[in-house]
Amino acid sequence: MPKSLHVRKGDLVQVIAGKDKGAKGRVIATLPREDRVVVEGVNMIKKHAKETHQGPRGAKTGGVQTMEGPIHVSNVKKLKDDKPADKKADEKKADETGEDS
């Protein structure tokens, strides 16, 4: 069973080690089995894709695509976010007060 990470998808993080040290971005995806996270705009890699004719809509164009690669979760630090994290918690507080809308 994979262990939990200290960051989740959507969290604002800062890179604290590696070639992109100091960069800030949102977590796009977490890979708990590999202890890695994908951060928006960090660790950009080039991926070469071959043109294929499979798929639901026919041809997929080939070429070089730039995308984010995963980095180790120990190289990121969670930052305080200025936007509210959970809207459901706010709704629950309003319900507990007993006021009618």
Automatic annotation (TrEMBL):
PANTHER family membership: MITOCHONDRIAL RIBOSOMAL PROTEIN L24
Q: Which organism is it from?
A: Nonomuraea rubra
Instruction: Kindly list the organism's lineage.
Output: Bacteria, Bacillati, Actinomycetota, Actinomycetes, Streptosporangiales
| Superkingdom to which the source organism belongs | Bacteria
Q: What is this protein called?
A: Large ribosomal subunit protein uL24
Its biological purpose is as follows: One of the proteins that surrounds the polypeptide exit tunnel on the outside of the subunit.
Subunit-structure text:
Part of the 50S ribosomal subunit.
Q: Where is the composition biased (Basic and acidic residues)?
A: 78-101
Task: Tell me which UniProt keywords the record has, alphabetically.
Answer: Ribonucleoprotein, Ribosomal protein, RNA-binding, rRNA-binding
Transport keyword on record: no
* UniProt cross-references to InterPro entries, sorted A to Z: KOW, Rib_uL2_dom2, Ribosomal_uL24, Ribosomal_uL24_C, Ribosomal_uL24_CS, Ribosomal_uL24_KOW, Translation_prot_SH3-like_sf
Supply the PROSITE patterns for this chain: RIBOSOMAL_L24
Please provide, alphabetically and separated by semicolons, the GO molecular function terms listed in this UniProt record.
Answer: rRNA binding; structural constituent of ribosome
Q: Where is the KOW domain?
A: 6-33
Any Pfam family matching the protein: ribosomal_L24
Under the heading Gene3D superfamilies, the entry gives: 2.30.30.30
Positions of the region Disordered?
A: 47-101
Q: Name one GO cellular component term.
A: ribonucleoprotein complex
Give me any GO biological process, just one: translation
Q: Which family does it belong to?
A: Belongs to the universal ribosomal protein uL24 family.
